[in-house]
Design a protein that fits this description.
44% helix, 5-stranded antiparallel beta sheet, alpha+beta, 5 strands
Length: 152
């Protein structure tokens, strides 16, 4: 299922483009429409619609919490904070681990929908993953780094 999702999301824009190019070539070569101005307007309309479709085509859609937690992780705003400061900012973690890499806090970070998404509607292969913000502390109990993990 993962390979189908990957191939669908990778090749769908190309399939749309090839279909539109084929339609435009047919319009240029057809003798059914004799008026060149009308042909040109149809081609411009097809290209405009194609651009709108391709701009609105996505392969994943995070919910608001996932967006917020990803932004927190990406801008490294937690680096250097103490455990107390992290808990004050984000609340009590879902899990606290103490493994070989040091202390680790895990927070629920919403969900991420993967599939072929058009205009915020999932068309094909609706796979929903849980997101988790993981915060790793160094030996001084300061945030060393954070990352977003996808959970099945």
């Amino acid at each position: 299922m993962g390979i189908v999702l990957f191939l669908g999301t990778v090749f769908m824009p190309y399939i749309i483009i090839l279909t539109l190019v084929g339609l435009i070539i047919w319009l240029i070569t057809t003798k059914l429409i004799k008026n060149k101005v009308f042909k040109t307007l149809i081609i411009i309309s097809i290209l405009f619609c194609g651009v709108i479709i391709l701009v609105n085509f996505k392969d994943e859609k995070p919910d608001d919490l996932c967006k917020e937690m990803t932004e927190i992780s990406n801008n490294k705003s937690l680096v250097g904070l103490s455990k107390e400061e992290v808990e004050e900012l984000l609340g009590e973690p879902k899990y606290k681990f103490n493994d070989e890499t040091g202390n680790l806090y895990a927070y629920n970070a919403g969900s991420l929908t993967k599939g072929i998404i058009f205009m915020n509607k999932t068309l094909v292969l609706d796979c929903i993953y849980g997101c988790e913000l993981r915060i790793v502390f160094d030996e001084d109990d300061k945030v060393e780094y954070s990352s977003i993990q996808l959970l099945p």
